[in-house]
């Protein structure tokens, strides 16, 4: 199979059965703010669907109880807008601090690994209702901008994150090769 344009690959991927569950969750997550008050929204967010039950993280057990009292009304209003209805809603404070990695709700990792971009860089949040192709295009443009601005490795002349140069004075690939040679020579 030869190379195909990104938009064709994305269309195929987004239409596959494996993505239907994720698309359903994203649709429900987009509907959630229209179903609850702004006060309830500040303390709740959908986190996943399991066995046709929507699980919603809450900021505390008090908010779980508060929303649980509204469960039937929320479920009815939600199911009116869904092609495939849910059987129930469950509220839990356990997952409030964790955001799913596959979701737009996920935050940028805060790891201090030198290969990651500067943690002080502004977080770029995607605009709402962005198509998959537009999101990938924006991401590719940001990556290209980062590469153009990155300093070059003094050994191989490849754009390198500043953190790697600060730590090893070369890119991670050149560092790994240097370490491999050192280990091989010591045997």
Which structural traits does this protein have?
187 residues, mainly alpha, GMP Synthetase, Chain A, domain 3, 2 domains, three-stranded mixed beta sheet, elongated
Short description:
By secondary structure, the protein is mostly helical.
Task: Set out the fold topology.
Layout: H1 6-15, H2 17-35, H3 38-41, E1 44-50, E2 53-58, H4 61-69, H5 71-80, E3 88-92, H6 132-149, H7 162-168, H8 172-186
Parallel strand pairs: 2-3
Antiparallel strand pairs: 1-2
Assembly state here?
Answer: single chain
Structural class: mainly alpha
Say what the CATH topology of the largest domain is: GMP Synthetase, Chain A, domain 3
The CATH C-level class name of the largest domain? Alpha Beta
Q: Assign an overall shape.
A: elongated
Instruction: Estimate the helix proportion, in percent.
Output: 40-55%
CATH architecture of the largest domain: 2-Layer Sandwich
């Amino acid at each position: 199979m030869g190379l195909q344009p990104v938009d064709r690959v994305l269309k195929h991927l987004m239409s596959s059965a494996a993505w239907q569950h994720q698309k359903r969750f994203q649709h429900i997550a987009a509907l959630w703010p229209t179903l609850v008050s702004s006060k309830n929204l500040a303390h709740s967010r959908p986190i996943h669907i399991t066995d046709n039950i929507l699980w919603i993280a809450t900021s505390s057990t008090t908010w779980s109880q508060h929303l649980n009292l509204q469960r039937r009304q929320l479920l009815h209003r939600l199911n009116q807008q869904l092609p495939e209805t849910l059987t129930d809603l469950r509220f839990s404070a356990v997952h409030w601090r964790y955001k799913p990695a596959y979701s737009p709700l996920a935050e940028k990792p805060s790891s201090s690994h030198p290969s990651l971009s500067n943690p002080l860089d502004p977080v770029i949040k995607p605009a709402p209702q962005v198509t998959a192709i537009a999101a990938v295009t924006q991401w590719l443009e940001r990556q290209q901008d980062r590469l153009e601005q990155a300093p070059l490795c003094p050994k191989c002349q490849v754009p390198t994150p500043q953190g790697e140069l600060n730590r090893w004075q070369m890119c991670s690939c050149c560092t790994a090769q240097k370490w491999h040679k050192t280990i091989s020579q010591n045997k």
